[in-house]
Amino acid sequence: MRLRFQRSLDDLKEKLLVMAGMAEQSIQRAVEAYRTRDLSICDLVDHGELAINRFEREIDQMALDLLAMEQPMAIDLRFILAVIKINADLERVGDSATSICDRVRDLQAFPVADLPVDTPKMASLAAAMVRKALQAFIEADASVAESVLSMDDNVDKLNDTAYFTLLNLMKAQPELAPQALNAIMISRSLERVADHATNIAEDVIFWVRGADVRHHSLNSESQSA
C-alpha cells in the first residue's frame, strides 16, 4: 500500500516539474520576443500557455484524488498541499508570459525605442528565482528555499527603478509614452514572476519544515512589538 502511494507521490512530483519547465521556458521566450519584437515567439508562448493550463488541471485532479483516497498525514499531507499551491503559482507564471507578449504585440505599432531600463537583468533575476525555488522543491531543501526569499528584494528594487525612470521619461519625452507604458507593464509582469517564485519557496519551507513563513514581515513586526 505504501509503495503504491509513494509511486503516486513521485508521479505527482514529476508532472509538476514538467509543468515548471514549461512555465520557465514561457518567460524566457516572452522576454526574447520583447527583445527581438518577434511575434512568432509570442505565438509559441500562447501555445505553451494552453499546455500549461491543461497540466494545471491534471495536477490538481491527481492531488485531490490522492487526498480523497489515501487520506495522508504529516509530511505527505503537506507535500500534496504544497504541490496544489505551487501548481497555481506556475500557472500564473505562464499568465505573466502571455501578458508580456500582449505588450509586445501592442508595441508593434510604434518605433523601437532605446529605453533606459534593464529589462533583461530583471528577467534574468526573476527566472533565476523560479529555478532556485524549483531546485529547493526537487531537493526538499528549505535552506535553498530561504535564499529565494532574500532575492525578491532585488527584483522589487529594479521594478521600482524602472517605474520611476520610465515615468520621468514620459514627462520629458511624451512621444515615447506608449513604449514606456508597455515597458512598465512588462516590468510589473516580471516582478509578479518573482513573487510567484517567492510563494513556491515558502511552500517548500512549509512542506519540509511544517513552518508557515508567509507574511514574514508581519511576523517580524509582531516579534519586535
UniProtKB/TrEMBL annotation:
Its main location: cytoplasm. It is found in: Cytoplasm. It holds the Pfam family PhoU. Residues 18-104, 121-204 form the PhoU domain. GO terms for biological process: intracellular phosphate ion homeostasis; negative regulation of phosphate metabolic process; phosphate ion transport. GO terms for cellular component: cytoplasm. Gene3D superfamilies: Phosphate transport system protein phou homolog 2, domain 2. Keywords: Cytoplasm, Phosphate transport, Transport. Belongs to the PhoU family. Homodimer. Plays a role in the regulation of phosphate uptake. This is Phosphate-specific transport system accessory protein PhoU.
